[in-house]
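4.2 Preliminary Data

To establish feasibility before requesting continued support, the project team ran the inverse folding procedure on a target of 252 residues. The structure was first converted into the token representation described in Section 3, and no sequence information of any kind was made available to the design step. The complete token record follows.
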């Protein structure tokens, strides 16, 4: 990892190294389920909020996209008879619910945060535009970008690539429940081996389910690095910002 390195003052006026100045953090909705296996787990939510606040205090500018799979997944809804457009719209609303939950958790510990939505729904959140998001980021406000792209047939992975490019993020950090990208699903195949680095083309050619093809192609075409790591281990987000090699870097 090398893009976006810089020195940023911390709250104690000491200068310390951070790997990235501005990030887009992608969180899955399923990760918010925690141990309970459904909905939003308060303990997991609080843990995420503390990790996010910790790096925000060091001067890292943070945009966040959260999926909605813990509440409703549009594509799976179509398999149960939902119209695809309606199903995806329901999924978008699920991401807004998760965004509001994370906003509440961050506000509870004193971290400035705003929710911007891809579909107008004031006063739930402000209507998203890149310039507004960047202004908030530059002020030290965590910005949660809810509602996906605002259009059906696009996943929150694609929404993450799009938003990362729009806010000029140095990297997309994809927080998952595994510690990187493997040759196969490590939860199913004990022989699966982990990549320290991998190219976009390899991800696509191997059919690795890191992100959907549209999201990966968008990142590739615009030179956006993706770093996949285990967000569920407390302190891991800070380790990534410190440059510790705990996950997998996807690069050209």
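Position-by-position output of the design step:
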């Amino acid at each position: 990892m090398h893009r976006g390195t810089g020195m940023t003052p911390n709250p104690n006026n000491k200068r310390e190294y951070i790997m990235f100045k501005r990030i887009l953090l992608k969180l899955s909705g399923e990760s918010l389920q925690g141990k309970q296996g459904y909905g939003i787990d308060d303990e997991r939510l609080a843990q995420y909020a503390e990790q996010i606040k910790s790096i925000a205090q060091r001067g890292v500018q943070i945009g966040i996209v959260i999926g909605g799979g813990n509440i409703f997944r549009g594509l799976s809804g179509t398999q149960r008879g939902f119209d695809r457009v309606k199903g995806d719209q329901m999924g978008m609303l699920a991401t807004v619910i998760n965004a509001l939950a994370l906003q509440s958790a961050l506000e509870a510990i004193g971290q400035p945060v705003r929710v911007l939505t891809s579909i107008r729904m004031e006063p739930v959140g402000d209507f998203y535009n890149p310039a507004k998001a960047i202004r908030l980021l530059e002020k030290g406000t965590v910005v949660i970008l809810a509602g996906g792209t605002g259009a059906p047939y696009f996943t929150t992975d694609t929404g993450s690539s799009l938003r990362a490019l729009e806010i000029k993020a140095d990297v997309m950090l994809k927080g998952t429940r595994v510690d990187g990208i493997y040759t196969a699903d490590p939860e199913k195949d004990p022989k699966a081996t982990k990549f320290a680095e991998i190219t976009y083309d390899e991800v696509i050619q191997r059919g690795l389910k890191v992100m959907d093809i549209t999201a990966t192609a968008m990142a590739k075409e615009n030179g956006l690095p993706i770093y996949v790591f285990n967000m569920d281990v407390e302190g891991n987000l800070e380790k990534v910002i410190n440059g510790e090699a705990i996950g997998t870097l996807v690069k050209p």
